[in-house]
Amino acid sequence: TLSAMSSPVSSTTKAIPAGGAIQGVNVQLTSTTVTITANYLVPFGFHHVYIDADNNASTGFFFSWETPTLGADYFIENNTLYHHTGATTSFSWSPLATITPTVSGSASTGFTYTWTIPVSVFTNGVPLATTERYLVEGTGYSPEVYAPIVTVTQQ
Hints:
This protein is an all-beta fold and 155 residues long. The protein has strands at 22-29, 33-40, 46-52, 61-63, 70-72, 74-77, 80-84, 93-98, 102-106, 110-118, 131-139, 145-146, 150-153.
């Protein structure tokens, strides 16, 4: 037996704000911690942060399509920090630590992710320099989106 036809449902998709799907990227680098904050306005499945710890695009995973280019020595995916283990063209990472972000906000305003990482965690691989670059990405369930690269100098 067939069931009766259901009633029609209408829906509306909101446009992404002019500033992009990831906004408010902020990085604070002190001698003891790195704090990274980003507001994801789209419900991404994966929240990524790529860290160019030595401010050198020729080390780490090479992002040739970004301007300026970036060599990611470390990578955060949701709540795990990884360090790069392969050639610059190889997306090869090894887990380093669990870094659970604090998350605030709502589906209507976006979700703000904040990762606070002790500098002492960055002992495997490239040490942190006094000037670093950060690239925040959202992917999964939506198109892949990158926020502009943020360059930070230790306070």
